[in-house]
């Protein structure tokens, strides 16, 4: 079994490395291409997609890139903590029959993220790192801080 880990770089990637470090399964990452990402994920299987940020056109490009990867890999499980780069892969996971695990980023202590608010509606498991977010995500599981 190969799981898909999709996230942006920096703190999101650091959290996903901690969250998945104990898993004894093959994994691959979907993220965007930056020098520190290449260095951090050296030796890992990585697929790069464009960071859509707030551009509708870049979201469309991200969708097509994510679709190509999803159809090639057909992951049974997708794990993400956002940000916008992960949205299309999360949607494809749900539509494609994969289990979707979403961990709200630890940077969100009091208010939900935009990606989290969208993905919460259809994630199979939604985990928060701060108890204060349970009021925004009543069906979520409190997992504690990753970092």
Helix/strand order, N-terminal first: EHEHEHEHEHEE
Named CATH architecture? 3-Layer(aba) Sandwich
The CATH topology corresponds to Rossmann fold
Mean pLDDT: 96
Q: What profile does the largest beta sheet have?
A: 7 strands, parallel
Approximate strand percentage: 15-25%
Q: How many separate domains make up the residues? A: 1
Chain oligomer state = single chain
Topology of helices and strands:
Elements: E1 2-7, H1 11-19, E2 26-31, H2 35-40, E3 45-48, H3 56-73, E4 77-82, H4 87-95, E5 99-103, H5 114-119, E6 125-128, E7 141-142
Parallel strand pairs: 1-2, 1-4, 2-3, 4-5, 5-6, 6-7
In short:
The chain has 147 residues and is of the alpha/beta class.
Detailed description of the structure:
Pfam families: Alg14. This is Oligosaccharide biosynthesis protein Alg14. One of its GO terms (molecular function) is N-acetylglucosaminyldiphosphodolichol N-acetylglucosaminyltransferase activity. The longest helix is centred in the middle third of the chain and has 18 residues, at 56-73. It is built from five helices and seven strands. α1 (11-19) links the parallel β1 (2-7) and β2. α3 (56-73) packs across α4. It is globular. The model has no long low-confidence stretch (mean pLDDT 96). With 147 residues, the protein is α/β, with parallel strands linked by helices. It has a single domain, classed as Rossmann fold (3-Layer(aba) Sandwich). It has a seven-stranded parallel beta sheet, sandwiched between helices.
